[in-house]
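Q: What would this chain look like folded?
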Amino acid sequence: MEFLTTSEAAEYLRLGERKLYELVTTGAIPCTKVTGKWLFPRHELDLWVLSGLARPAGMLIAEPPPVVGGSQDELLDWSLRESGSGLGSMSEGSARGLERLQRNEVMAAAVHFHAPAASDDLASDASIEALRATPDLHDVVLVAFVRREEGLVLPHGNPKRLHGMTDVLALGARMAMRQQGTGAQMLLDVLLKRAGASTRDLRRIETAALTGPDLAELVRAGQADCGIATRAAARSAGLDFVPLVWENLDLAMRQRSYFRPAMQAMLRFLNERRLRQRAEELTGYDPSPAGLIRFAA
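A: My prediction, written as structure tokens:
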């Protein structure tokens, strides 16, 4: 993550430093204080600016920018870099990514939706149903990226002996949360419902983590006893992991974007041996469905 100093952030946003300090004082801008100095995550500043973007009703961008929004994933971020596609990423969660795709603000959205289902397959086709229910996506294509393991991220050694949501609820373990609209938070809601509970029954850490690695850091720092994230996020942070479900992580895009050179470069990369090797190194991934079209409107 790239951090900007106060002067760099003011220049980046075309603001005076005095105005920037006013925004910091009122808590109106994303920032953090380290050893007495304010630092500004550049990625967060981009999201902050975009969140206030206003357009006339019905206006669409002619061509979406070469950005993959939606869910954060370590293997996906690596693939975007290694594929030479030129695609960037904007990690805000599945629901926000789909909203941006709907408004043509991203070329694709990485999604892993979850919804209560009668079957035991927690990762049934909730993502397909979400696409069908989204207005103005009559030309959408859903391309499989990977299947991946989601579960409980735990401190090394699993000191509280947590093995599922029943243990989390019974022992009152401190649960790190993701923001609403993320696939991980949807999965948590489904798991709680199956246990006859809701988020109100949890001992929650109120500050929501932006990404899975952010959540893992809360657990590693001792601020939470557990949270829902991927096996890869747990492994990268040196944490324990209890698997709960395999899920589909897919790329949703409009049909015209599917044929753009940047996206084609990315899709070609999905068939390369390097992707399978990297998936094995990170652990918790099944790349066998990569590149398959799972749904087309």
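The first helix runs from residue 6 to 13.
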